Amino acid sequence: MKHIFEKGSDAQKNTFLLLHGTGGTETDLLPVAGMIDESASILGVRGNVSEHGMPRFFKRLAEGVFDEEDLIDRTKELYDFIDTAAHDHAFSRDHVIAVGYSNGANIAASLLFHYQQPLKGAVLFHPMVPRRGVELPDLTGLPVFIGAGTNDPICKPEETEELSKLLQQAGAAVDVHWESNGHQLSRNEVEKAAEWYRNLK
Ligand code: MLT
């Protein structure tokens, strides 16, 4: 997958897996990662699907209606890519924390839905429920931060609650932060994610 890797100043630390929103690129979330922990390593990835030229991590049939088969295939593609990248760039596979926005948050959530402990943690800005009617793997203790908007027309509050509940039922430690905003990523929610991250250690 097209990506950038930047080794952090402390190689023992975490690697942020940056996953952009629809139409984004592997560099979009660099400022966000810097606000959360500027000494972490960075693996910024570009989604392999093109929707009228806009990169995404998986296909959709309509706004909010996912192509489930493609979602499953692309989730595996990303999972395998993380393994390969950890080998190629010599970072610890056990210290990968996803930072995703919108479509990127959805594929990060999909990793959590399909693989056991696929990440050390996840920061999900404006995620949706990636799939319904499946049993989640054991996510005991896995820390998840969700940034949500009470007026988000794409990731509606009920869906945020549903996602949070599903992850919690699988054992994840979920913190939801609400902003009275829409779908945009706000500075304040990134600051809250940074606070959450500092408390992890
Ligand atoms: C998605 O398709 O993943 C969601 O609708 C979010 C988006 O990318 O707009």
List keywords for this structure.
single chain; 201 residues; alpha/beta; Rossmann fold; 7-stranded mixed sheet; 5 helices; binds D-malate
Describe this structure in words.
- This protein has 201 residues and is of the alpha/beta class.
- It has a single domain, classed as Alpha/Beta hydrolase fold, catalytic domain (Rossmann fold, 3-Layer(aba) Sandwich).
- It has five helices and eleven strands.
- A seven-stranded mixed beta sheet has the order 1-3-2-8-9-10-11, with helices on both faces.
- Helix 2 (68-89) packs across helix 3 (103-114).
- The longest helix is centred in the middle third of the chain and has 22 residues, at 68-89.
- The chain binds D-malate.
- D-malate is lined by residues 21-22, 60, 63-64, 102-103, 106, 128, 154.
- Pfam families: DLH.
- InterPro entries: AB_hydrolase_fold, Dienelactn_hydro, LYPA1-2/EST-like.
Compose a concise summary of this entry:
The protein is an alpha/beta fold and 201 residues long.
**Helical amount among residues, as a percent range?**
25-40%
Low-confidence stretches: none
**Which fold does the CATH topology refer to?**
Rossmann fold
Alpha carbon gyration radius: 15 Å
Q: Quickly count the helices.
A: 5
Structural class: alpha/beta
Largest sheet: 7 strands, mixed
Distance between the termini: 30 Å
Approximate strand percentage: 15-25%
> Can you list the ligands bound to this structure?
D-malate
Query: Helices and strands, in N-to-C order?
Result: EEHEEEEEHEHEEHEH
Mean pLDDT: 97
E-strand count: 11
How many structural domains does the protein architecture include? 1
Overall, the morphology is globular
